[in-house]
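forwarding from the other thread:

> can someone predict this with flavin-adenine dinucleotide?

sure thing
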Amino acid sequence: MSVKALDPLDLYDIRSEISEDEAMVKDSVARFVDDRVIPVMREAFEKHEFPGHLVSEVAELGLLGSSISGYDCAGLNSVSYGLICQELERGDSGLRSFVSVQSSLVMFPIHAYGSEEQRQRWLPAMAKGEAIGCFGLTEPHGGSDPGNMKTHAKRDGDDWILNGSKMWITNATIADAAVVWAMTGEGVKGFIVEKDMPGFDAQEIENKFSLRASVTGALFFDNVRVPKENVLPGVSSLKGPLSCLTQARYGITWGVIGAAQACLDEVLGYTKDRVLFGRPVDHTQTMQIRLADMSRRITTAQLLSLRLGRLKDKGEMTPAQVSLAKWNNCRAALDIARDARDILGGSGISAEYVPIRHMLNLESVITYEGTETVHQLVVGKELTGVNAFG
Ligand code: TGC
Ligand code: FAD
């Protein structure tokens, strides 16, 4: 039996499990990331700047709201969306974050819970990158427990008056519209707050050591008058924002695989060339075990995400399954990035090599969209039927 050489970044040949259409999406995003994203990300990260010029390019490729059919969106399946996230995050988690927020946290709720007028107004503009959105759920006193939100709105005639604040919001200061979740006398509602509405302010959070190529900020609402046309009519409970998180978390399970692959790729080359004690360091048993362990984790993550994507496309994916994959894949990617940083020795602290940038980014990715503990407890609840959060 002849044994064919395996792709070190795809040991179980996931490539053969995706359709021709899905492979075409993956390859076109991969080319874009190689040609346009990777060359600019190191500098963007060092300068703490979001590479805004890429927005029109990701829009041109159909990557914004790619799962939505109609409204100038691409109407791709969930596995394609996952592959988009994977390839983008191979470049940098910051650009993937931008696409996740725009697609899963802003366009998704407008599509799922918005009126036809809201869809017509925002979705085509957002698909083209002409309007940017952000998603305001987390508050300064504790993001893991959004049910305890203080931001609130009350009716005033046909309008609503919104007060409160949101913290750690991706795209905050570059957004034209914020989908803001607030407590009302009728349950948790989603408000489309436009950047010029009086009483609304967004401020950037400076000095981040993670996701430096992404904009993160705080939102403030001081008696913001929101017309009823800007309230999402289709949902009035925590299920609204949590269902958006399920979409975004699904994409993240794929995204972090890309970051992990970039780290493994870097150290495979480095350990081949690095001669220590008279032999390339990849000839040693310890190093091979470390590389093999990275491959094991990436392969497990790939299989989880692909299975999840197929379930999602059949309409069978559950939040607990997403939690298990978000937990597993983020943990795997972060551990791989940290180990890759170490394998590079002193060079590992230089931005000339990708692991430290991915490692720092992944510290955010393992925290946002539900911390590791939150996802462990979601799985625990699924297994035992007992809610251990409180
Ligand atoms: P709980 O009582 O469990 O649920 C309330 C209602 O919501 C339903 N539900 C979900 N629906 C869809 N997807 C999910 N994942 C859902 N989880 C729960 C649930 O069935 C229930 O429905 P109903 O009809 O019975 O009312 O709510 P809880 O308050 O006990 O909370 C549970 C918990 C802790 C899991 C939840 O609060 C949580 O997920 N906390 C973490 C918060 C979080 O992840 N925040 C992320 C903010 S956004 C962000 O980080 C963006 S990063 C952007 C980037 O990529 O740059
Ligand atoms: P806390 O909720 O205060 O958690 C602190 C610690 O307590 C964590 O370790 C947590 O795991 C632990 N903990 C929580 N509950 C329990 C429990 N029951 N038992 C034991 N331990 C527990 N939010 C948005 O709404 N929109 C965005 O666009 C957005 N973008 C973000 C971008 C970045 C770069 C970052 C860092 C965050 C972003 N977030 C966003 C916020 C993110 O979702 C929150 O940071 C996250 O949900 C955790 O909330 P917290 O930071 O308030 O931590």
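The radius of gyration is 21 Å. thats all i got for now
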